[in-house]
Amino acid sequence: MIGKIALITGANKGIGKEIARQLGAQGMTVLIGARDPERGQQAAAELKGGGADAYFVPLDVTNADSIAAAAAQVEQDYGRLDVLVNNAGISADGGPSSALTLTMDSLRRTYDTNFFGVFAVTQAFLPLLKKSPAGRIVNMSSGLGSLAANSDPNSPYAAIKPLAYNSSKAALNMLSVTFAAALKDTGIKVNAADPGYTATDLNQNSGPRTVEQAATEPVRLATLPEDGPTGGFFDENGPVAW
Ligand code: NAP
């Protein structure tokens, strides 16, 4: 993995920072995408202190100018991108079961980050990924985005139905399948990862899993060999039902 360039969005904390740490430990140069300069620089410095070749890249995934500037910076500094992890995500439902009370503003804000942001960042970085001999895109989805799990009354997720978050991740899964199909004749693989319910700020640190565990599958998908899958949805146990 030495010499490879990876960009992780929303990498200043949580699972994204841990993905950056693990990819850095494998020898990749890791670009810490973050919307807040102080938080981004701090995370990059921390990872650098741990031995990673880590750099902060200003990137707000909801801002077209910021995305364009980040792509221009990576182009100028490296001329290509090997790995893009679309990790930045928010949960703005305001409750676990919100279809009846969800506001249009919360729905739009969620989609701005979790879906439109991924679309915009992916399109902006595709020219650089195409310059890689083996581009890899990993989209951070969730088991909560699984239509199969949501429609099964016996699923552990049956009672957890924040409409904005869950539907944004279901849409992200479709984005993953669709980009994978569009890129099937290139070396670029596109997969969706479910990190599992993990203690981070996203859920007020309520999840039982650690960020180290959560990063395992996205890191595997970011480092897939040439004969690895594309257009799939995986957790560490294998394929997840759509
Ligand atoms: P987190 O600790 O809240 O981290 C989210 C990251 O996204 C932060 O760095 C945040 O930056 C960044 N971010 C939010 N909006 C952004 C924007 N507009 N531009 C750039 N960065 C932005 O959450 P996490 O649990 O690590 O979540 C990471 C991903 O895993 C998300 O996509 C989430 O949906 C997914 N996931 C998490 C779980 C879980 O149980 N934790 C389960 C399944 C899937 P700031 O610090 O500036 O806010």
Short description:
The protein is an alpha/beta fold. It contains 7 helices and 8 strands, in the order E-H-E-H-E-H-E-H-E-H-H-E-H-E-E.
Task: Explain the overall architecture.
The chain is an alpha/beta fold and 242 residues long. It has 7 helices and 8 strands, in the order βαβαβαβαβααβαββ. The chain starts with a strand and ends with a strand. The chain binds NADP nicotinamide-adenine-dinucleotide phosphate. The site of NADP nicotinamide-adenine-dinucleotide phosphate has 29 residues, from α1.
SSE diagram, text form:
Blueprint lengths: L4 E4 L5 H12 L3 E6 L2 H13 L3 E6 L5 H15 L4 E4 L17 H26 L6 E5 L6 H4 L12 H20 L6 E5 L17 H12 L10 E3 L2 E2 L3
Helix pairs in contact: 1-7, 3-4, 4-6
The protein binds NADP nicotinamide-adenine-dinucleotide phosphate (NAP).
Which stretches of 5+ consecutive residues score pLDDT under 50?
none
Gross morphology is globular
Q: What gap, in angstroms, lies between the N and C termini?
A: 30 Å
Helix fraction, binned, reads 40-55%
